Amino acid sequence: MVGYAQMKRRDFLASSAAVAATALVRPVNAATQSDVLKPLVARYAAGAMVREGRVKLDISALVENGNSVPIEVTVESPMTREQHVVGIAIFNEKNPQNDVAVFTLSPLASRARVATRIRLAGSQQVVAVAKMNDGSCWTHTVDVLVTTTSCIEE
Q1: Dihedral over Cα of 124, 91, 57, 130: its sign
Q2: May I ask the CATH architecture of the domain 27-148?
């Protein structure tokens, strides 16, 4: 019976630690971008006002290993000749190179969706920005907690 009580205690302590760590992490959908990301997004937008919405950045909020992190960006758009996405850019906050990827799209794409794998050098914000053919720009920012880092230059 002693082994059972110790095991339950370990489970309780592990669960408590996980809850405490979750409380310390920033919200998954951050309302504001970091000071590192703001100029990158502004440069990509080329003077256009960047608004929240229409873009869904799908990346896990908790990543065990930063070496290969799946990421997907979807933009609400009919992808017609009159209204379509012309580009999607992904930036991160703390990697040695903040420009992760830039994709070019046309009305020939049936959906405004891109997917890839990226490397993350620690916990940080990741942002996706979509440019529309009318010149508007839309964005979504996510905070990602990475337990095993990648891309560290020594």
Answers
A1: positive
A2: Sandwich (2.60)
Q: How far apart are CA 83 and CA 77, in angstroms?
A: 7
Give the pLDDT confidence of 88-119 residue by residue, as tens digits. 999 999 999 999 999 999 999 999 999 999 99
Residues ≥6 apart with Cβ < 8 Å to 109: 79, 84, 85
Domain spans in the chain, listed from the N-terminal domain onward: 27-148
C-alpha triplet 123, 40, 126: angle, nearest 5°: 25
Rounded-to-integer distance, Cα 63 and Cα 24, Å: 16
For tokens 């009919």, name the residue.
Answer: 78
Shortest CA distance to 61 belongs to which of 147, 149, 150, 143? 143
For 31-82, the pLDDT digits (tens) are: 478 899 999 999 999 999 999 999 999 999 999 999 999 999 999 999 999 9
Tokens of 27: 């919200």
